[in-house]
Amino acid sequence: MFRIKLKEEQTVGMLQLLSKIRYAVIGREADKGLLFKLFIYLILLDTAYIYLKPILHMIATMVKNADDLLDPAVNWFPRTIYLGNLQEAWSWMKYPKALGISLGLSLSVAILQTLSCAVTGYAFARLKIPFKRVLFFFLMLTFIVPMQVTILPNIIYARQLGLLNTIYPIIVPAFFGLGLKGALFVIIYRQFFSTQPKELEEAARIDGAGVFKIFYKVMMPLAKPAILVVFLFSFIWTWNDFYLPSMYLSDIETAPLSLGIEKIASALRQQAEAYGPSVNDEAIRMSTTFLMIIPPLLLYTFTQRWFVEGVERTGLVE
Fold first, then answer.
1. Cα gap 303→308, rounded to integer Å
2. In this structure, are residues 256 and 233 in contact, taking their beta carbons and an 8 Å threshold?
3. Is there a contact between 204 and 213 (Cβ–Cβ < 8 Å)?
4. Cβ-proximal residues to 109 (8 Å cutoff; 6+ apart), any chain
5. pTM as predicted
6. CB atoms within 10 A of CB 273
7. How far apart are CA 290 and CA 296, in angstroms?
8. pLDDT digits (tens, 9 = 90+) for 191-223
């Protein structure tokens, strides 16, 4: 009798142990087991590899010398670190001056769009204005009208005003929140301000605050997540923009970095047609790309936590 009871206890213990192992591997719920977590990590690693491989290839190529570039056995890890390609790209791009132009242009556009679109988004979200739905419909139409349709009249106006080969034709529209970017940012602000409680405005009105004071003293401090999202989107969008600078700044000697890459690529093509291709051409292209993307990467590195939080709070992930 004692042996039978002991065997039953051992069987129960084994079943409990197997049950614990099963719950640890599969989980009581579908999204809490080890297999599900391994599957998620596998997807994340694959996605990270897809995005990181071009950057790693760019860095590995730009630090190779001619011998490593010609050797098919050298793929990811060069035998020696060669910075001559990076120095050559630096001098061709006139990097310090071009970097200053890109930073000034991107910061100016980002700040102006952040402020002007905040005002417009607050008006659409909280104020009672005539024909608000009609105006918002026209705002949505800017998603449909491509930039190429309106660029020719804008170039004509800029030429008549003597503003060609200056950054003003790019900065001034940002002050009024024009274009596809402006419409997107207005919608982001409208979505954020619409979710704020009305009691805040009512309390401010009781204290004697007007519309402008409510906006700057009450709503704007709450809109820090939306402000950060709009600022970063606008900055990166303007930093990477090639189309508008190529329309307005094509004749100046020192252009933004987005134009500098194209000018270097064109110079390399002409050099290859005249003297034949060089083994360092690809490394120089990678070096110019690295110099172009390193400032946004540094910016995102220091702001990614607040950026992700801002995207969640503005409703862009819904």
1. 9
2. no
3. yes
4. 170, 171, 174, 234, 235, 238
5. 0.77
6. 9
7. 11
8. 888 888 888 777 878 877 777 888 888 888 888
